[in-house]
Structure formats: C-alpha cells, structure tokens
Amino acid sequence: MLIIRTAFKNIIGAGRATRLNIAVLSFVLVIMTAYNGMLDGWIAESRRDTIDWDAGWSQLWHPNYDKYDIFTLPDAHGKIPIQIDNALQAGMATPVLVIQASVYPQGRMLNIQLKGIDPEQQILKIPSLSLHSAGGETPVVIGKRMAATTNLKKGDRVMLRWRDRNGVFDAREVQVAAIFETTVGSADAGQMWIALDDLYAMTDMQGEATYIVMQRESPVSADTGGWHFKDNDFLQTDNRILEQSSRAESVIIFTILLTLALLAVYDTQTLSIFRRQKEIGTYVALGMTPRGVTTLFTIEGTTYSLFAAFFGAIWGAPLLYWFTKTGLPMPEAYGDIGMAVGDAMYPVYKLTTVATTLLVVIFFSALVSYLPARKIAQQNMVLALKGKIN
Fold first, then answer.
1. 232 inside domain
2. CA-to-CA distance for 141 and 50, rounded, in angstroms?
3. Sign of dihedral through CA atoms 352, 353, 359, 362?
4. How many structural domains are present in the chain?
5. What are phi and psi of 353, to 5 degrees?
6. Is the pLDDT of residue 14 over 90?
7. The domain containing residue 45 runs over which residues?
C-alpha cells in the first residue's frame, strides 16, 4: 500500500505531464470504444437484416444451385422434396423459384433475376402480399435500388422477357405493385419478385423451386431429398468476411492510436527516471529494494491508464450515448456496393469489447512503464544513492 500511495502522490505532483498522458489515453479509449461500438452495431444489424430479408434462418438448395454463379440458374430448379410438406403447410418454410429474365425500362435492356415467392409467406419481409393479381395485371415488387436502376415507380408497367423450362422465349407486361426499402442488396439489386403461381404459369415449372427458406423453428436441419441444407452460419458468409476485414482495420487503427499514446507515457517515465535519480537513491537508502523501485514506476505508469478510464467515462459517456440515439449517417454508396447498412449506423456497446479495450490499454501502459524502469534493478546502488544512475 505504501508503494501505491507513493505512486499516486508522484502522479498528482507531475502536473502537466500527468494531464497530458491522461488526456491522450482517454482519447484512445473513447475513440476505440466508439469505433468498435459502431462496428458491433453494424454487424448486428447486417446479420438481422440478412435473416429478415434474404436468408431466413436456414435454406435448402437445389443440388445445381450456386448463388454466386448465375450460370447455374437454368438447371437449378426441381420438385420440392415431399419431406418438407409439413413445414410448408405450417408456414415454417417457403419455396423460392429463381430464373434469369430481362426487363426493358425506357427502351433499355437489363438482365435480372426473377424470383417467385408465395404471396402469403411471412418468413421474409418482402411485401409479398402486394403480389396478389388484380384487374388482370401481373404484379411484381422491386427494391429501392432496383427502382433507381430502372427508373420505375409504383404503378409503372414494364416489358418482361424470360425463358420457360423448354428454353422458349416469352414476354409480357408486368406492373410494379410495390417498392420496398432494405439494406440487403441481395434481395434488391437486379431482382424482381413475382407471385410463385404466376411464375409457374409463365415457365411451366409447377411445384418446383430453386431454394427453400426456413424459419428458426423449422424441423429441417440436414440434407433432405437430395437438396443441400445451408445453415445460418453459411448464409452469413458474406457478412462474416466483411466483419473479419473490418476487425483487421480496427486492430490497425487501435495499434496506431495506442502506439502514439504510449509514446507519451514512455517518454514521461524515461524523463521522470532521469530527473528523479536522487529521489530513487533516497528510496533505496530508506530500505526500498531495486525491485520495489521498479514496481513503483510501473504502478505510476499503469495509474495513468486507470485515471484515463475514469476521465474518459466522464466526457466520453455522454458522447457515446448521443451516438446511440443519432447514429452515424452513412452515404448511400455503401448500400450500392452490397453492404447491408442503412441510412445511419447505430452503435452497440458490448461489455466484453469495452473491457478488452480497457485491459489492453492498461497492460501496455504497464509494459511501457516497466521497460525504462527495469534498468534500475540492474544499477549499482551506491551510484543510485549518489544520484548517478546511467
């Protein structure tokens, strides 16, 4: 306790150097807490929106289907396995039939994926109820990005061309029944959604699907009827890759900021040892061991980070709370490149993340304080008493 009290008094007496070190370390703590909170919030939102709009909790894929290879689509459809009839009837699964098609907005041609879905399904947030036919029209729903690409508005008609199961081209005019907004590009960009029965009639693929989206409570959890089961972890692969790259960026930023902050602590401790040689000799004369002197300076450096955490909580907590309410506005370009992000990114502050950041700062503060102090234990104590530590 004597060493701790002595270290505390020395820090208070350091004045400007103490304030500088605390300010720099608290800045690093608050900035990294905010950055990691934004990252955790975006990851949580992205995963949730992917489940709600595109992936569901799991899927069954036709053996020929590969979502990353559009050339598999002509052969990626087949009869829905009878093993999941009960899940379909209970509303715990919904089939989706995907074919290639083309639309001709304003005389332009645009290749798209035409997706048939049950209008009554409640697994995905796609506004499928708008797909009920009315007045002899063939309704489709599209996302905000698709609407911007095609310059289509609700109620507009556009020519749609596709191939049926025999490879024969056909075309008809469809009407935009609804335009939805989502952060998930894979449910929006280059996509049109149509009633499954309408797509069956257009392609002569009755009772077939490309993949089947399932709820969390679905009893299907393995390959079924020759179809491949894909769990949520697999369906979140894109988000996981983005998360890993973002985490790497976070580590790089944290390393740079922490290095700059620790340089200030290291310089302060080194200068302090140089200027306090007679004080160190006095400690030794009073019976403090060289190891005890080293511990004293190490505790002093570590205390900077503890004060920084306290000071950072005072000025940083209101700022971090404000971010949870307002979010960080994001440019639309992020959504256009396929990132599942809304108009603003709202942080989520995880206790484990905050604690890890704090522990890392404390550990390295102790380390950079120990490094210049360790030479004290290797010095001649007679020289220490004379204030002549080399």
1. no
2. 18
3. negative
4. 2
5. -65, -45
6. no
7. 2-52+239-385
Same domain, 173 and 197: yes
Helix (H) or strand (E) holding 19: helix 16-50
Query: Would you say 147 and 153 are in contact if contact means Cβ atoms under 8 Å apart?
Result: yes
The Cα-based distances of 202 to 47, 97, 192, 237 in angstroms read 34, 12, 15, 33
Closest CA to 341 of 38, 45, 34: 45
Question: What pTM, to 2 d.p., does this model score?
Answer: 0.76
Cα–Cα distance for residue pair 147/189, rounded to 1 Å: 9
Are the C-beta atoms of residues 309 and 20 closer than 8 Å to each other? no
User: How many other C-beta atoms are found inside a 10 Å radius of the C-beta of residue 68?
Assistant: 7
Beta bridge partners of 103: 110, 160
DSSP string, 223-292: -BTTBEEE-HHHHTHHHHHHHHHHHHHHHHHHHHHHHHHHHHHHHHHHHHHHHTHHHHHHHHHTT--HHH
Question: How many angstroms separate the CA atoms of 42 and 243, rounded?
Answer: 9
pLDDT tens digits, one per residue of 74-98: 899 999 999 898 889 888 999 999 9
What ranges make up the beta strands (E) of 165-210? 169-180, 191-195, 208-209
